[in-house]
């Protein structure tokens, strides 16, 4: 009898880390379903793409269908994310950042985790950020979304203890994608290195991973200084 292929769904994989990780999973013999607003041009029989916005009313339905077309879901990676500078005359972009980065992840969890619990196995990885401990006057929606995401995913990890389902929160510093577009990007990682981190997460299922380590140490030291004084 042919061995069952491991199945993954990657949300936010038309570009950046999600796209590179999708390619790695396929090269490693996984069957993958991908979700983003744009197609990513991957044309192999073990890959299916679903174009939808994670904030759209039918997102959960599309995601459920994508999973049902797979043979179960061993791994779900939430890599969808945006970050916009603040404009005090129009805070819609901050609201949207919270909707994509945090509520989109929560809707994903609500679709995926019950299936994993029913199967008694599964692994959810969420791409958070070292911004989760920062107060940001430049991009408050981004930092707020990542603070909420890290806290929610770690809480879920605790809630799922003993169910066979793991949740990993990944806190990257700067990774060389179009998202890291600012002029100052200390200790920036290549996308390949970020993918290597995710591959190790799949193998070891840790609760929390912060990379690069030196950037994590720096942000821990700097975080208290980002709080407004009055
Ligand atoms: N790059 C960094 O420095 C860095 C650092 C720390 C954490 N992260 C986190 O890592 C994750 C991936 O970031 P990245 O650098 O790979 O960014 P990226 O290159 O901009 O890719 C973001 C992905 O999210 C998808 N996406 C955005 N809005 C979406 C929506 N409304 N519905 C569905 N998909 C959506 C995009 O696809 P479509 O546009 O086709 O929808 C794209 O595939 C993000 O959560 C980010 O916050 C990145």
Automatic annotation (TrEMBL):
Task: Extract the Gene3D superfamilies matched here.
Answer: NAD(P)-binding Rossmann-like Domain
Where does the source fall among the domains of life? Answer: Bacteria
Q: Which GO terms describe its cellular component?
A: membrane
Print the keywords alphabetically: Oxidoreductase
List the molecular function annotations (GO) for this entry. Answer: oxidoreductase activity
The UniProt transmembrane annotation reads none
The family line of this record is: Belongs to the short-chain dehydrogenases/reductases (SDR) family.
PANTHER family attached here? DEHYDROGENASE/REDUCTASE SDR FAMILY MEMBER 7B (PTHR44196), SHORT CHAIN DEHYDROGENASE FAMILY PROTEIN (PTHR44196:SF3)
Q: What is this protein called?
A: SDR family NAD(P)-dependent oxidoreductase
| Organism, as annotated | Micromonospora craniellae
């Amino acid at each position: 009898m042919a061995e069952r292929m491991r199945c993954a769904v990657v949300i936010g994989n038309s570009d950046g880390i999600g796209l590179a990780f999708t390619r790695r999973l396929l090269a490693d013999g996984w069957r993958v379903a991908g979700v983003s607003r744009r197609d990513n041009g991957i044309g192999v029989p073990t890959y299916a793409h679903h174009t939808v916005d994670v904030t759209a009313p039918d997102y959960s339905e599309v995601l459920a269908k994508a999973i049902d077309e797979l043979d179960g879901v061993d791994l779900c990676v939430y890599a969808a994310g945006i970050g916009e500078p603040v404009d005090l005359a129009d805070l819609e972009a901050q609201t949207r950042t919270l909707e994509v980065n945090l509520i989109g992840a929560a809707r994903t969890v609500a679709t995926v985790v019950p299936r994993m619990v029913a199967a008694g196995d599964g692994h959810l990885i969420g791409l958070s950020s070292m911004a989760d401990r920062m107060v940001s006057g430049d991009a408050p929606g981004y930092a707020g979304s990542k603070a909420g995401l890290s806290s929610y995913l770690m809480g879920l990890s605790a809630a799922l203890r003993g169910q066979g389902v793991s949740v990993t929160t990944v806190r990257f510093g700067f990774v060389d994608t179009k998202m890291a577009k600012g002029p100052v990007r200390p200790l920036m990682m290549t996308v390949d290195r970020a993918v290597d981190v995710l591959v190790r997460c799949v193998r070891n299922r840790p609760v929390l991973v912060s990379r690069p380590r030196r950037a994590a140490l720096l942000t821990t030291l700097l975080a208290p200084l980002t709080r407004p004084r009055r």
